């Protein structure tokens, strides 16, 4: 990995000239850009997965709520009828 010491002058840079320095910096920036693109793709994928999970949980909660209300109504209906 190329390490540039900012503020120390060009004498501390690797001995391959300014064109080589720019090429090395461009290469590092390309690698960083590639890593950031990869992270962005992973972030988008995780975001989509979490949205799907959230929607699934909402649907499950709604179904559970409806079943619970139905059971409560059935229990209330049985309790209000006189015994036979």
From TrEMBL:
Superkingdom as given in the UniProt entry: Eukaryota
Region (Disordered): 61-84
Sequence ranges of Polar residues compositional bias: 62-84
Pfam families (alphabetical): UPF0184 (PF03670)
Protein name per UniProt: Uncharacterized protein
